[in-house]
Amino acid sequence: MQKRIFLTASAVAILALSSASVMAQANTFKIGLILPMTGQQASTGRQIEAAARLYMAQNGDTVAGKKIELILKDDTSIPDVTKRLAQELVVNDKVNVLAGFGITPSALATAPIATQSKTPEVVMAAATSSITQASPYIVRTSFTLPQAAVALADWAPKNGIKKVVTLVSDYGPGIDAEKYFRERLTFNGGQVTEALRVPLRNPDFAPFLQKVRDLKPDALFVFVPSGAGAAVMKQFLERGMDKAGIKLIGTGDVTDDDQLNDMGDGALGVVTSHHYSAAHPSALNKKFVDAFSKANKGLRPNFMAVGGYDGMRVIYEALRATKGNGGGDALLAAMKGQIFESPRGPMFIDAQTRDVVQNIYLRKVERKDGQLYNVEFDVIKDVKDPGKNK
Ligand code: PHB
């Protein structure tokens, strides 16, 4: 008799527990954040994770009655791993949104999973133009290489740079940068005299830079992914290429805020074009940089951090707009067309392309308060991805 009472009581307890977990599931909103936390792209993972956690600390972890749960996975920037993790997050964890994606191949590998499961995929880092076309569920909060490169190709010939050698990482974003820079420079009367491509994995820049030195162009245009800029800068300076009269220019990935301050005075004067600088002079950005740095032992946020921060904003606002009741399609619809002020400046998610429309700034490395910064000196407003017009 006593045993039976015990059994009944424990059955009730189990029932209560499982209905509690069903309730918890219903009251939880899960974001599967897939990032390279180790390996060559680890600085990207660290920046985006820190920014996502800062956003949650500043904006609370409950939205529209749902508790936000961030599930972080390290894909080591291997696309097969990204894909497997995305599958597990969708099938086992039943995430509401997939987010992150440090490099283009990882974002592309996940696209079919987003499409099949109707899960929004918020691309916070990867920047090849075509990514948003790989799935109607992809929304981007980073930038595109054509967006950044074209502004520099307009600036260069007006500033005495006519003959340029390009040096890019040999994969999606590098090929975009090379193509759009060259097309626009040529249109503007300049010339790319040689286009060099260096492997993404374990690149050795030395033989390429030696070749550039021999070619003696007015400038070397560089695209390397976030984290690789300091190595290029070091070898460029070691070879005395600046002294030989070759200017270093590129998209802002090369003078990444994450590494810039350690690059030394040799980086002074380098001109780049990009969507974000930690020195962007707005009240909102100052607040962002201070809070980020305070929460992360003095670390300076870079453009990856801002992509993560704004990605969280897009997710939070979509959840709020759908009052916590929407599935993937409703969330996606609420992400499209969002317009807001980001630490980078004004930004807009184009409802048609699901890509980011934003200002692109021309910046020069200068010393400010004893530290090196990308100081903005010109702006091209509301730039759409030129890759979408083709
Ligand atoms: C990319 O793989 O799309 C990518 C990665 C790092 C960057 C830019 C683009 O800095």
Explain how this protein is built.
Helix 3 (79-91) runs parallel beside helix 4. This protein is globular. The model has no long low-confidence stretch (mean pLDDT 95). The strands form 2 sheets. Strands 7, 8, 9, 10, 11, 12, 13, 14 and 15 form a 9-stranded mixed sheet that branches. It has 11 helices and 15 strands. The N and C termini lie far apart (78 Å). With 390 residues, the protein is α/β, with parallel strands linked by helices. Bound molecules: P-hydroxybenzoic acid. P-hydroxybenzoic acid (PHB) binds at residues 103-104, 125-128, 172-173, 225-226, 253. P-hydroxybenzoic acid binds at residues 103-104, 125-128, 172-173, 225-226, 253.
Number of helices: 11
Q: Specify the structural class.
A: alpha/beta
Total strand segments: 15
Q: List the ions, cofactors and other small molecules found in this model.
A: P-hydroxybenzoic acid
Distance between the termini: 78 Å
- Rg, rounded, reads 23 Å
The percentage of residues in β strands lies in 15-25%
Q: Spell out the helices and strands N to C.
A: HEHEEHEHEEHEHEHEHEEHHHEEEE
**Main pleated sheet:** 9 strands, mixed
Mean pLDDT: 95
Helix content: 40-55%
In one word, what is the shape?
globular
Low-confidence stretches: none
